[in-house]
């Protein structure tokens, strides 16, 4: 089976991990800050706080921004459930902004409309979480301007989008957001097995996320309410978690990030080839443009013929092509239906879901494998 995505682990990665295993620190050692510095430098952002998953990083970001009971967080219904769950962890309410069918991203027109209604009703969101679906950046400038106008904070769920560029600048620079999150799950662009990071230009947010990542404990004397009893002294100043990344994971990340640009180029070469070869077929191919340089985490095709998706999906699977669907709309998950969401609430998201299939795309996909995928699709759709 050709998977829809997979990691590449080189001998250099293995050596980096083994070196940590033989060292003094398996956790809370020097690799974490090295990895954080490399990401911050790559993204041209001031602070990076690594964690054990992007889900944890989303939770930390919501907590640092003060999300609480009674507050609203808005995100895209076409995302992984974690984009919404982070609000629920804080006891906050969730709502969704319907997508733009051409990109699958949160529609800024729908956001504008929903904000003006929410303002009248007095239920504006505290946080908006745009998701850069498949690695294609959302229209961040427009979302930022609305944030200024309506007073909400912004967390970019860039789980798919490390290595992407928005308006020529790296996603993660937080020019148009308070915090940006990346995921390092093995199907994502680079991996630490499990892992995530939150990026910010605000030192206060960075300190808060760092403290909450490790039980709410600090060793910084200026954060304490008294002089330390001695050099062993620490204080718990908040209710935090154990969301730490290990040294083993961070060492893998340090080794992987060296190949990030190479990976993105390879993904673009694969996508270019799909673009050309699949153009004659009755499909809507991913929307690609220069302003929004995608990391191409996914290559989602849309089937124009209604009710054709399931058939094509099952046939490709039977032929050993490991396709996938990104995503089942979050509002249609039983947990969210119990909160009051129902079919018809976000029609674009539901239409998108009914048409979509993610084709295999990852750096080690060979051209022979891609030939085979293209051939099978042509057989099915010509
Ligand atoms: C993968 C993913 C997450 C969660 O990432 P983890 O590191 O697995 O916790 C969140 N949001 C989106 C959009 C994702 O694709």
Give a nutshell description of this structure:
By secondary structure, this protein is α/β, with parallel strands linked by helices. It is 39% helix and 14% strand. The protein has a seven-stranded mixed β-sheet, sandwiched between helices.
Number of helices: 13
What is the C-alpha radius of gyration, as a whole number of Å? 21 Å
Averaged pLDDT: 97
Major sheet size, sense and barrel closure: 7 strands, mixed
Strand content of the residues, in percent?
A: 5-15%
Distinct compounds present: pyridoxal-5'-phosphate
Record the strand order, biggest sheet. Answer: 1-9-8-5-4-2-3
Name the overall outline: globular
Which regions are unreliable across 5 or more consecutive residues at pLDDT < 50?
none
Instruction: Kindly state the percentage of residues in helix.
Output: 25-40%
End-to-end distance: 23 Å
Number of strands: 15
């Amino acid at each position: 089976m050709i998977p829809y995505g997979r990691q590449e682990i080189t001998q250099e990665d293995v050596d980096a991990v083994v070196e940590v295993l033989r060292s003094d620190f398996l956790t809370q050692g020097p690799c974490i800050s090295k990895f954080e510095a490399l990401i911050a430098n790559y993204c041209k952002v001031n602070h990076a706080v690594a964690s054990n998953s992007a889900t944890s990083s989303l939770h930390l970001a919501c907590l640092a921004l003060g999300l609480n009971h009674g507050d609203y967080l808005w995100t895209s219904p076409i995302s992984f459930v974690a984009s919404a769950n982070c609000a629920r962890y804080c006891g906050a309410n969730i709502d969704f902004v319907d997508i733009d069918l051409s990109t699958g991203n949160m529609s800024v027109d729908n956001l504008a409309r929903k904000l003006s209604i929410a303002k009248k009703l007095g239920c504006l969101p505290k946080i908006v979480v745009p998701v850069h679906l498949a690695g294609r950046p959302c229209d961040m400038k427009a979302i930022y301007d609305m944030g200024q106008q309506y007073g909400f904070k912004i967390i970019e769920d860039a789980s798919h989008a490390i290595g992407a560029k928005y308006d020529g600048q790296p996603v993660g620079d937080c020019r148009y957001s308070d915090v940006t999150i990346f995921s390092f799950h093995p199907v994502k662009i680079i991996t630490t097995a499990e892992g995530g990071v939150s990026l910010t230009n605000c030192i206060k947010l960075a300190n808060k996320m760092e403290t909450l990542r490790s039980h709410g404990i600090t060793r910084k004397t200026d954060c304490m309410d008294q002089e330390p009893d001695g050099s062993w002294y620490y204080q718990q100043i908040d209710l935090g978690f154990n969301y730490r990344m290990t040294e083993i994971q961070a060492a893998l990340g340090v080794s992987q990030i060296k190949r990030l640009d190479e990976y993105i180029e390879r993904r673009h070469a694969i996508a270019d080839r799909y673009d050309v070869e699949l153009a004659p077929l009755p499909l809507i191919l991913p929307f690609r443009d220069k302003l929004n340089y995608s990391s191409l985490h996914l290559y989602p095709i849309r089937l124009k013929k209604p009710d054709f998706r399931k058939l094509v999906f099952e046939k490709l699977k039977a032929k050993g092509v490991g396709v996938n669907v990104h995503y089942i709309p979050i509002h249609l998950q039983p947990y969210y239906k119990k909160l009051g969401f129902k079919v018809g609430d976000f029609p674009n998201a539901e239409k998108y879901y009914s048409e979509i299939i993610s084709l295999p795309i990852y750096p080690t996909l060979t051209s022979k494998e891609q030939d085979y995928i293209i051939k099978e699709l042509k057989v099915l759709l010509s």
